[in-house]
Amino acid sequence: MGYKKVDEKDITYIRQVIGDDERVLTNGDINEEYSHDELSGTSSYPDVVVRAKSAEEISKIMKYAYEHTIPVTPRGAGTGLVGSSVAMEHGIMIDSSLMNQILELDEENLTITVEPGVLLMELSAYVEDHDFFYPPDPGEKSATIGGNISTNAGGMRAVKYGVTRDYVRGLEVVLPDGTITEFGGKVVKNSSGYDLKDLMIGSEGTLGFITKAILKLLPLPKKVISLLIPFPTLEQAIDTVPLIIKSKSIPTAIEFMQREVIMDAEKYLGKAFPDHQADAYLLLKFDGNSVEEIENTYDQVAKLCLEQGALDVLISDTEEREESIWKARGAFLEAIKGSTTYMDEVDVVVPRNRVNEMVTYLHDLQKDVNIRIKSFGHAGDGNLHAYILKDQLNEQEWENRLNEAMDKAYEKAKELGGQVSGEHGIGYAKKQYLKESLPSVDLQLMNKIKQAFDPKNILNPHKIAQV
């Protein structure tokens, strides 16, 4: 596709639309962070960055870009891990982080309407102050809601409550040609034709630009208690997870962690983890409306874990203990990042009863490829995060070993009936693995959907299934 190169005439038009030179960045004013996302492996600068404040501004810029065939890249907080928000064809980048207003809390319909730049941690705090609960809980709390919707972010509470898709009722969207439209609404049920709202969720900014979201809320659980359960081996810990799921005492979260990652988190935070007696742990969270209700739920699970060889069951029933455990868990990614020179990640998801095989395979893969790999993840929903570390390898060795490790990890996930990504998306960095994983007819359908929304392919080109 031949794209028009942004010139002074285009920038003059953009400045007229925005009417505020401080919100239009060019040349040396474009911060280096706009050239990459959190992992920084995929890098490319936009020609101009627009810090939009309204759907109308975005609509005018998209209409102009469509007429002149200028590529446009949507961007939120830039916390992604697969290059989704990187401007591969340069052009215009529209940053929606200033669109950060909470527009309406509708207590009768149990919904909240927000702009896409609202941060996850701001949304969670706001609704909890009003005695409501927004369950999706991705690890990166400084991500924007628009970004969460664009990648269908999951997080730790998915085992009980589901993922972002399950909490999006309606979207306002600017289409690639500048048209502003709405998908879904406040209704609970909707069988009115194709579900265009669900097509937008997880589309990583390739089909339209999200400018408003209506999200479903739940009543806030009154109590939360966690169990930290040490096991002699990771195998015993992981093997216990399907039994917990079958017990019907479903925890809010079931996480697995290994001692070596916990040590990284301790070093990163400068705080000791509450327990050091084991090489592997399950971390379970339970919520409910009373301590008695939660105790009745977790008592059965605690006994089951001890029967499966757990060394102990540590109950985190104070705010201080709760914070120390979950703060360490929340720091895993940054801690691992801080322990090496660079890293790349695998975000595979496998059926829950195959988690142990996948974890064991990733552990053994370190020796096969001669590279360090650290992993943790959401054992309750089969989503594993494996980080491949560069350390002191030179560029050629790094590329060779990284590619070999990635190829083998994704091939194993496919063999186990899994998928390439559980929650981080495909973006630019993981395209080849998606193509190897899915039937060609699926990829063709994805590209035809992209063409239907965006015949000129100006919106976030080269992402997901595109060439």
Automatic annotation (TrEMBL):
<dbReference type="InterPro" id="IPR016167">
    <property type="entry name" value="FAD-bd_PCMH_sub1"/>
</dbReference>
<dbReference type="InterPro" id="IPR004113">
    <property type="entry name" value="FAD-bd_oxidored_4_C"/>
</dbReference>
<dbReference type="InterPro" id="IPR016171">
    <property type="entry name" value="Vanillyl_alc_oxidase_C-sub2"/>
</dbReference>
<dbReference type="Pfam" id="PF01565">
    <property type="entry name" value="FAD_binding_4"/>
</dbReference>
<dbReference type="InterPro" id="IPR016166">
    <property type="entry name" value="FAD-bd_PCMH"/>
</dbReference>
<dbReference type="InterPro" id="IPR016164">
    <property type="entry name" value="FAD-linked_Oxase-like_C"/>
</dbReference>
<feature type="domain" description="FAD-binding PCMH-type">
    <location>
        <begin position="42"/>
        <end position="220"/>
    </location>
</feature>
<protein>
    <submittedName>
        <fullName>FAD-binding protein</fullName>
    </submittedName>
</protein>
<dbReference type="InterPro" id="IPR006094">
    <property type="entry name" value="Oxid_FAD_bind_N"/>
</dbReference>
<keyword id="KW-0274">FAD</keyword>
<keyword id="KW-0285">Flavoprotein</keyword>
<keyword id="KW-0560">Oxidoreductase</keyword>
<dbReference type="InterPro" id="IPR051914">
    <property type="entry name" value="FAD-linked_OxidoTrans_Type4"/>
</dbReference>
<dbReference type="InterPro" id="IPR016169">
    <property type="entry name" value="FAD-bd_PCMH_sub2"/>
</dbReference>
<dbReference type="Pfam" id="PF02913">
    <property type="entry name" value="FAD-oxidase_C"/>
</dbReference>
<dbReference type="InterPro" id="IPR036318">
    <property type="entry name" value="FAD-bd_PCMH-like_sf"/>
</dbReference>
